[in-house]
Design goal:
alpha/beta, Rossmann fold, seven-stranded mixed β-sheet, 6 helices, 7 strands, about 35% helix
């Protein structure tokens, strides 16, 4: 069996949500597929999947975007992990993070969900919080805006100029995590720019 990793971009389905902050995880998975010339197809686990390789002769990557809404991502993630025989420590979850400033990445394995309902549901469905995460900073809303509304808004015009770089960096972080491990990825992407 090849060295297989499941890389899941959390988000909400459909065009209404495609460009929102909550869907930045899916944007990163789209970038990983685009780099390899892959497209997504439907999978019986209620997700869209692209099977590819980190590079020839290296780890197999199963790139996935659940068709479920964010707060019930666990079912599709667990279904895919079981289908591909991937243990939780090789399930990389890419998601937005309110408590990290925009244009910042943080990686970790395990720990709490930090109030992120998608991460909470994945941990519950997998039966463990011990899976690697690439946390893409979207920052907190300005003023008194409700964070629940903020995450469902599209990125602001000023953010959209930097967003492709952030998404590219997050895709690089996933690749480095799979290739060299969590510590190497943290050392590169946690360093101040």
């Amino acid at each position: 069996m090849p060295d297989t990793w499941l890389v899941v971009g959390l988000g909400n389905p459909g065009p209404r949500y495609a460009a929102t902050r909550h869907n930045v995880g899916q944007m990163v998975v789209d970038e990983l597929a685009s780099r390899r010339g892959e497209s997504f197809s439907s999978h019986r686990a209620n997700a869209r999947v692209a099977e590819t390789w980190l590079r020839p002769g290296a780890a197999k990557l199963v790139l996935a975007k659940p068709n479920s809404f964010m707060n019930v991502s666990g079912g599709p993630v667990t279904g895919l992990a079981q289908y591909y025989g991937v243990d939780p420590e090789r399930v990389v979850v890419v998601h937005d993070e309110l408590d990290i400033p925009f244009d910042t990445l943080r990686l970790k394995a395990g720990g709490g969900h930090g109030g992120h309902n998608g991460v909470r549901d994945v941990a519950k469905a997998l039966g463990t919080p011990e899976f690697p995460r690439v946390r893409v900073g979207i920052g907190r809303p300005p003023g008194r805006q409700d964070p629940a509304d903020w995450v469902l808004d599209p990125f602001a015009a000023v953010e959209r100029t930097t967003l492709p770089i952030l998404v590219g960096d997050a895709a690089d972080a996933v690749e480095l995590l799979v290739d060299e491990g969590l510590l190497a990825a943290q050392q590169r992407f946690h360093a101040p720019r």
